[in-house]
Design brief:
about 300 residues; alpha/beta; single chain
Length: about 300
């Protein structure tokens, strides 16, 4: 076996319905030059030949950015692989790694290790959220044989900015859990979510646990056009899903859609999810899932 496999330990703050839905998770550990990347995997019983969807989380996140989306994909017949990107969650931080451009080599090597042992069979679709969208685009640009489609979810790196910078606040200098929680709530509403009721107990717990394990704090490539420069290179369909009120592109989604379609040689689908913010797959899981399945089945 080219990777280590064990039963995954789920966060203890998941509600009972999610814990039950995700209970069959496997923890896979792949390595490149001694650096470990941890993947979480799910598949239906008897689903050895299922097509695979790889979900890449956003910055300061982990696999739990997709916690509301995994079980519906498994139920729809997909094998689901969700890595903690290198430098986040349980995965190691590679030496000298300070941004997204260092990640594709580790993701490619990990996928090859999983495929070599038959764990990941059939066609692979890459779905990347935010920072993970940049990672997915760079991964596929470097290794075009690794996937048959790319889906960008709230991805930056298109060279388009809004007039007002997202007003995020620092929290590491604060000495009390109460003060840190107040900042986490502010940041979630400033960047990730649109509706106040979406900031529930689970969203706060996931965000708090994730940001504490972010070891790549000085990322800068999201403000460039790094994704836009990759789009003309892809020979597979490229699709996109964005929340209507994504803070990264507030008021500029039509411009973003036109740019993506114009740069892509094989354009797939565009979906705007109404009344949702940047973390669209958490805030509006049902319409997001319908859009994603429509893309995956096309």
């Amino acid at each position: 076996m080219n990777f280590d496999m064990s039963c995954a330990v789920l966060p203890n703050f998941l509600p009972s319905d999610l814990s039950l839905a995700l209970a069959q998770a496997q923890r896979l550990e792949t390595r490149l030059n001694g650096v470990a990347t941890v993947w979480h995997a799910w598949h239906a019983v008897g689903g050895a030949l299922q097509p695979t969807v790889v979900l890449l989380h956003g910055g300061s996140g982990s696999w739990t950015h997709w916690v509301r989306n995994i079980a519906p994909l498994v139920k729809a017949g997909w094998r689901v692989l969700v890595p903690d990107l290198p430098g986040f969650g349980d995965s190691d931080l590679p030496a000298g790694c300070n941004d997204v451009d260092a990640l594709p080599a580790h993701l490619h090597a990990g996928l090859l290790q999983l495929q070599a042992d038959g764990f990941c069979a059939g066609p692979v679709s890459l779905v990347g959220f935010s920072f993970g969208g940049m990672a997915a685009a760079l991964w596929l640009a470097d290794h075009p044989q690794d996937a048959v489609r790319l889906v960008l979810v709230g991805a930056p790196g298109m060279g388009l900015t809004v007039s007002e910078r997202v007003p995020l606040k620092g929290w590491r200098h604060l000495t009390t859990a109460e003060a840190q929680e107040q900042v986490h709530r502010h940041n979630l509403m400033a960047l990730m979510l649109q509706r106040p009721e979406s900031l529930d107990t689970l969203a706060l717990a996931l965000h708090t646990a994730n940001v504490q394990r972010d070891r790549m704090p000085r990322r800068r490539l999201s403000s460039t056009d790094i994704v836009a420069r990759t789009l003309p290179r892809f020979q597979v369909p490229v699709s996109a899903i964005y929340g209507e009120h994504d803070a990264l592109y507030r008021g500029r989604l039509p411009e973003l859609q036109a740019a993506m379609q114009g740069l892509s040689t094989r354009w797939g689908q565009w979906h705007t999810v109404p009344a949702a913010g940047h973390w669209v797959q958490y805030e509006a899981p049902e319409p997001f899932h319908a859009a994603l399945l429509g893309i995956l089945r096309a």
